[in-house]
Automatic annotation (TrEMBL):
GO cellular component: a single term: extracellular region
Pfam hit, one: Cystatin
Descriptive protein name: Cystatin kininogen-type domain-containing protein
Entry keyword set: Disulfide bond, Glycoprotein, Protease inhibitor, Repeat, Secreted, Signal, Thiol protease inhibitor, Vasoactive, Vasodilator
One GO MF term: cysteine-type endopeptidase inhibitor activity
Domain Cystatin kininogen-type: 153-257
InterPro entries: Cystatin_dom, Cystatin_sf, Kininogen-type_cystatin_dom, Kininogen_Fetuin_HRG, Prot_inh_cystat_CS
SMART domains noted in UniProt: CY
Cellular localization per UniProt: Secreted, Extracellular space
Signal sequence region: 1-18
Gene Ontology process terms (BP): vasodilation
Amino acid sequence: MQLLLISLLCSFCLLGSGNQASTDEADCDDPNVFLAADAALRSYNDAKEVGNQFVLYRITEARKKEETGRVHIFFKSEIKESVCQVKNGINWQQCAFKENEGDNGECSAHVLVNVESKVCEIYTQNCSIRKVLEPPVTAVEHTCLGCFNLIDTNSETLLPIVRSAIKKMNRVGNHKFHFDIENLTKAERQVVSGWNYNLQYKIQQTNCSKSLFPEWTPEECSLDQNGQHGDCFTSVFVTPNEEIRDIRLDCHSSTGFCLSCPDEVEKEDPELLNLIKQFTEEYNSNNNHTHLYEVNEVQKATRKLRFSIHICLTSTYTGLLR
């Protein structure tokens, strides 16, 4: 483009504006006009380093000034982008238009044609290209039918579902106190024949012990600021009639105690500690080890008809048992 501008300025200085004033109108079918347009378009395509070649769409205006053995051609043309890349050795006349999204432009040129040799000399050429801008693509999000989709945790629809889950956890769990929800952190819903819900929420111990309040009621029980905290991951199915069914709980306190396990026993349960003491004393008295053992850690405790305990023992001192 810089070379074209320099050529334009030089030609203007050499020829002056008076050259076109003394020209005659030329027929667009004049072979010399086509030779000039062909040479100018070849020059324009050769100067391009990237992109596609342009092809001649039509000549809109042509004038000429004849001299001995040569003729000055002044013309205007419209060009369009083709499907052929530049620098591929293909003549623009062999290329098809690039449909719809192709750029287009207008050119004006002054070309000197040698009538006998058909050799053209391009004095000036100026092309203005109009870029075709692709319309912006707007991303549209659609809800995935059959997928779990996030829903607002403040939705009133969730309140009875969460309360049913809390009620079941307090009923089946073995913690001595009832728990209540502290904060609902995530909720998602899947549309099936009804609805599946996945809920994540924080829970906290209340001031209601199960010995005094066998049934948990949110109106009577308030959160105990000094009580244990916990996390729940709950799945719930709700029928098309909005009946809450199939509540699956996975709730644990901050100490790791399973609040939704019917057989779970708190590690600090007095009855459990008393059994551990009896077990340790019996273990130390009934073996011939040179060490006494004590319980180092209660890893897990569950209760059915009897206690099932997994414990670790550590040696306390060396010495024969008497």
